[in-house]
């Protein structure tokens, strides 16, 4: 039986992405609750409708992680399973997957299941899945060796993101209303990164989109000094044009060739908000 890679919907890969590689791939959806409306973060979700609903709703919206049974249903389909979950530092999704793995292994102890807490989201999860795909296709390592290599690769990844619409941060209490108004009027755009513990910290505050994209591109400079080439993944919320500008800056400044751009799914759109950009390398 083919191996299965399982992720949650904070990973912005299309559900059919690995079909051509002969690897089963499942995306377990989270939910976003905006007032009385519950959005299921699957292929049917229109992120523009979600963003508009969030803008119109004056109170804080919320998200809900998948249940253990949601993950267990996918784990039962294959004998060899790799689970890539969003950071446990900001969501209960990883713990839900862990409970599911215990349930399924109790039913059938012969199954191979390995869970990975990405300590990130979106683009870092995509890079992990791409690396996992390449190792599986090469066919030179067994299950345990692949898991060990992927764990090492995860430690080398960096995730940064740029926020342009701060309204959701204000509504959820992560930023004061006064600070949000001031930042918006001055075109201040925070660039943040995922820490080693899977939390979020702001690393730079820029004014204007040109400076912001330039600063974001420069964040790969340290890695570019020691690596000739490496893959970069960019995800965007309704913002392909700026994602392409960021890609062009990376190509021009660092001669990077392997750069991928994906639109965000619902969960990452919920957090990054309209025009948000996430990048991992």
Automatic annotation (TrEMBL):
Pfam family, one: DegV
Database matches in PROSITE patterns: DEGV (PS51482)
Keyword Transmembrane tagged: no
Keyword annotations: Lipid-binding
Keyword Kinase carried by entry: no
InterPro entries per UniProt: DegV, DegV_C, DegV_domain_contain
Protein name (record): DegV family EDD domain-containing protein
Organism: Acetobacterium fimetarium
Phylogenetic placement of the source organism: Bacteria, Bacillati, Bacillota, Clostridia, Eubacteriales
């Amino acid at each position: 039986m083919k191996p299965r890679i399982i992720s949650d919907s904070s990973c912005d890969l299309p559900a059919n992405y690995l079909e051509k590689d002969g690897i089963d791939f499942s995306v377990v959806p989270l939910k976003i609750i905006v007032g009385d409306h519950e959005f299921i973060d699957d292929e049917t979700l229109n992120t523009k409708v979600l963003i508009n609903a969030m803008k119109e709703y004056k109170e804080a919206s919320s998200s809900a992680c998948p249940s253990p049974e949601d993950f267990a249903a996918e784990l039962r389909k294959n004998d060899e399973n790799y689970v890539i979950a969003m950071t446990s530092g900001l969501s209960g999704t990883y713990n839900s997957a862990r409970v599911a793995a215990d349930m399924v292994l109790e039913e059938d102890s012969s199954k191979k299941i390995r869970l990975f807490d990405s300590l990130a989201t979106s683009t870092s999860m995509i890079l992990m899945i791409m690396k996992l795909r390449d190792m599986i296709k090469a066919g030179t390592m067994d299950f345990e060796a692949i898991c060990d290599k992927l764990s090492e690769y995860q430690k080398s990844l960096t995730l940064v993101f740029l926020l342009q619409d701060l309204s959701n941060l204000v509504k959820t209490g992560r930023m004061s209303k006064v600070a949000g108004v001031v930042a918006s009027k001055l075109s201040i755009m925070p660039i943040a990164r995922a820490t080693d513990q899977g939390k979020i910290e702001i690393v730079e505050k820029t004014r204007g989109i040109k400076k912001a994209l330039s600063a974001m591109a420069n964040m790969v400079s340290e890695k570019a000094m020691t690596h000739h080439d490496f893959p970069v993944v960019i995800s965007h919320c309704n913002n392909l044009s700026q994602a392409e500008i960021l890609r062009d800056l990376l190509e021009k400044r660092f001669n990077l060739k392997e750069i991928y751009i994906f639109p965000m799914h619902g969960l990452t759109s919920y957090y990054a908000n309209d025009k948000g950009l996430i990048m991992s390398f």
